[in-house]
Predict the 3D structure of the following.
Amino acid sequence: MIDLIVVNGTIATNAGTFKADIGIDNGRIVQIGGTPPAARRTLSAAGLLVLPGGVDVHTHLDAPSLDMMTADDFRSGTIAAACGGTTSLIDFCQQTPGGTLADGIANWNGKAEGKAAIDYGYHMLIPDFSDSIAAELETLPEKGITSFKLFMSGKGGAMVDDQALVTAMEMAKRCGAMVMVHAENGDAIDHLQRKYLREGKTAPKYHAESRPARAEAEATARAIALAEMTGAPLYVVHVTCAEALEEVVRGKLRGAPVLAETCTHYLFLTKDSLDQPGFEGAKYVFSPPARTAKDKNALWLALRHNILETVSSDHSSTRFHDQKQGGRDDFTKIPNGLPGIEERFVMLYQGVVEGRITIEQFVDLACSRPARTFGLAPRKGTIAVGSDADIVLFDADAERIVRNRDLHHAVDYSAYEGMKVRGRVVSVLLRGEVIVDNGEFCGEPGYGRFLPRARVEA
């Protein structure tokens, strides 16, 4: 007798859609279809889609942002993720400037253990690169951390030069890891920021004006070129615009080892959101900034044609009523980032509703390819015998309005407030245990486990 059987649902994977029951035992899927085995519990999925649990590979929980911490810690952030259909995430574990990577990992373990409601892994974010840190990178894969991120922007802060990028790439290739880059030309951005401030242009809309698409495209092209020179795998985070997409496509056509993502907000928001009465535009200050309607369409086309690997949330939440207010007189002092960990799954599903992507592509972008890209497959991101029983029961026909009051994060706004969407997460299973029932969290903070990841093949 097995633990649980999910019956009468329509399973959707990245390979197709079909009706079958799913048998679950000891936290894993043990049978799909065939004669239903005897089970201690039965869960009906009648009238619902049965989807793999979402995999969000870009989050910032309990992380520093300017002189403050993000509003969501591992408890509130992972509960929100679960209620939105995400069962695994990879968070950016940060080195403290001047500290070691090992200290950063220990710090993040303290943040996550006993709080995480879903399974989690780490990327290593490195704001203070040095020769000793470069040497320490080689120790990360043995700890299950096979990706690390460097910034090409943030002059005077986390920004690194090309020498540091090349060094990190060579180390990554040697030890079986992947370099991730925030691709914007930091020198150009610093010049434009100073120019606008000298001219008294301090409003949130100048955040976008000081970070033009060409600054992103130039840095993207440069990072890809360096990856070609070293032969190291590269992952470009949060691609926002057609100009940067063109560089990704050119690199792929040359055979460069480049992968790339976009984020939910770039598919729905434009830079017009920053130009609102009063200080409302501060809610939409994130980097790189939102672009134009033309860029949104280019990103959707890239997803349809499998040019981008994943869609992440880049969840980095700071409250509008107090934390964002620090930049009222200087747009460079507005904490970057916005919430989205709970909204990612259903917002990306709107691409299916609107005919922009297929249901199979949705599953691939939200679940399967993130898991494959970052060494979590086949354990995560799919419905297959032997995989973890991470399952979302999804009502594809439910219609609702996005309201912040209905969400579970610890921040006071949603970037998608008032948007009408189709689709609703009904129930969520993590390793065979129901952690969301009728849209509400019913699991236990601390049930989430650390996910060591496989090494990357160059």
